[in-house]
Amino acid sequence: MAPAARVPTGLLLDMAMATPFLKWAGGKGRVLHQLEPFLPQAFNRYIEPFVGGGAFFFHLSTAGRLASGAILNDLNRELMNCYRVLQDPASVPDLISLLRRYAHYTQDPGFYYRLRALDRSPDFMAKHTKVQRAARTIFLNRTCYNGLYRINGKGWFNVPYAQCSRARRLFRQDNLWACHRALQGVELTEGSFEKCLCRARPADFVYLDPPYDPPSNTSFFTSYNGSKFGEDDHKRLSDDFRALHRAGCLLMLSNSATPFVRSLYQGFRIQQVLAFRAIGSRADSRKLVEEVVVMNY
After folding, report:
1. Cα dihedral sign for 290, 49, 21, 177?
2. How far apart are CA 127 and CA 118, in angstroms?
3. Is-contact 134 151, C-beta < 8 A?
């Protein structure tokens, strides 16, 4: 476990303030009150193979439900770098310092595109520290179109800048420190969901929030790692769901309420929730859509 962080005197560090530091397409912040009644009464470790913005993790952490530890995973390299930087007490002050500088440029598209272009260089990883990469990811996420994270086949982040007439808040210092505290003792991994799920043991609670099966060809964004999460991937995930069920794990899965998803999890408990989602390509085109929550308990 990392040593306790030295924090600025007088800074409010209420664990209840830990909320996602990123905007994340499909994030669970607005449906937490609907997921809460479906939580298992007791479990050992918490495992999340598609952590994304981490809304569910931070919710459970602030509620004191993660006493036995947690494993957070994602295939997204730059996302997991952010989590590692926030977990490290020596890196958080440097991240805050750099974000303060970046906060002056949230309405500067030229700065946005210069920062976005950094990963076009083949030595991007070698030339930039983990803190610099994390600050870049947070800045791009907070100022890009619709909070998307999308990379092309070359591995380049390619979401355009989002015009905004008002000042945008890039970060909250108190929340970054609260996220740091929530991440203490958490195991952070990077890789496929299969690799992460191999770590699950009986009585572990596994929450699965994969890229959703799209109700139409244009309604949902399903890729942020340069490749689409398609039907074959959903079938592999449902196979793992059934294997973990037989192994005695406690499982919850979120997805869109399509006939395909319902067929994959036939025989398990399926509940319906409503969530505001962007429909189509317009960020302001939002409406309530049906989602399902699948459980094996």
Report:
1. positive
2. 10
3. no
Interval 143-201: pLDDT, tens: 999 888 888 888 899 999 999 878 789 999 999 999 999 999 999 999 999 999 999 99
Parallel/antiparallel/unpaired status of strands 286-295 and 250-256? antiparallel
Q: Are 291 and 274 in contact (CB under 8 A)?
A: yes
Residue where the block lists tokens 């799920």: 197
Length of the chain in terms of residues written? 297
User: 5 falls in which pLDDT band (50, 70, 90)?
Assistant: very low
For residue 248, give every residue at least 6 positions away whose Cβ sits within 8 Å of its Cβ, in sequence order, or none.
Answer: 202, 203
Q: How far apart are CA 67 and CA 46, in angstroms?
A: 9
Judge contact between 292 and 254, C-beta under 8 A: yes
Q: How far apart are CA 34 and CA 278, in angstroms?
A: 19
Q: Rounded distance, CA 212 to CA 205, Å?
A: 20
- This prediction's pTM: 0.89
Q: Cα separation of 35 and 78, whole Å?
A: 28
- For the beta carbon of residue 14, count every other beta carbon within 10 angstroms: 12
Q: What is the architecture, at CATH level 2, of domain 15-295?
A: 3-Layer(aba) Sandwich (3.40)
Residue that the structure tokens 């690799």 belong to: 195
Cα–chain center distance at 32: 14
CA distance to 91, 131, 258, per residue, from 125 (Å) = 17, 11, 39
Three-state secondary structure string covering 121-146: CCCHHHHCCHHHHHHHHHHHHHHEHH
Q: Is the dihedral of CA 99, 54, 69, 233 positive or negative?
A: negative
